[in-house]
Every structure is written in structure tokens, then in C-alpha cells.
Design goal:
The protein is mostly helical and 108 residues long. The protein has one domain. It is 60% helix and 0% strand. It contains four helices and no strands. α1 packs across α2, α1 crosses α4 and α3 crosses α4. The protein is elongated and about 50 Å long.
Length: 108
């Protein structure tokens, strides 16, 4: 199980800063997800790489946002939730890969 990230996590701060210039509560879940991913990917790198529409993580974050009342949260809280959702997805994906390897190797 993945623990929620702290508000001091550099990725949370990057997402919060990325949302701050916008009236982000009025944006679509897709746009918030793209802004968040661009901030996370660009962390520590000047400019960062753009997020493409085919990035599977957009769907992960959109599904998360559509399942909660994110517009009632602060920028810091929604940023923390987005990073935690992404970490959880990554953790679950890694376990799925391990379990599939076990099955394919005949050890499962």
C-alpha cells in the first residue's frame, strides 16, 4: 500500500505551482492532469517535456479526479492527491508486472 505523499514533497510543490497561475477549479480534469504531469515530469529540469495525449497517466489522473470532489480542495491538497494517485498506480502496475512474470515463469 502506498502512503499519501507529504505536502512538502517536491512533486506536490511543483504541481501546486503549475496550477497557481490558472483558475484551475474551472479547468477540465484532462487539463488539470496534463498540467500536473508536466510539472512532475519537468521537476528539476528547466522547461520539462510536454505531456502527450497518449500518455496513459492522463487517464489514471482523470479517473481519479472524476471520482472525487477535487474542486472543493485547495491547490496543495489536490496536488497531493494527484501525486499519491500516480504513486499508487505505479506501485500497482509494478506488482502486476511481477505477478505476470511469476505466472509466465511457472513459479506462481
Amino acid at each position: 500500500m502506498v502512503r499519501p505523499v507529504s505536502l512538502g514533497d517536491t512533486r506536490v510543490r511543483a504541481v501546486s505551482e503549475a496550477l497557481r497561475p490558472y483558475v484551475w477549479r474551472g479547468l477540465t480534469p484532462e487539463m488539470v492532469s496534463c498540467l500536473a504531469l508536466a510539472a512532475i515530469d519537468g521537476h528539476g529540469v528547466a522547461g520539462g517535456a510536454p505531456v502527450t495525449r497518449r500518455d496513459v497517466r492522463i487517464g489514471v489522473l482523470v479517473d481519479f479526479l472524476e471520482g472525487c470532489r477535487w474542486r472543493s480542495l485547495t491547490a496543495g491538497a489536490v496536488s497531493r492527491q494527484l501525486v499519491t494517485a500516480l504513486d499508487t498506480w505505479r506501485h500497482e502496475s509494478q506488482w502486476l508486472e511481477i505477478e505476470l512474470r511469476w505466472l509466465l515463469d511457472g513459479d506462481g
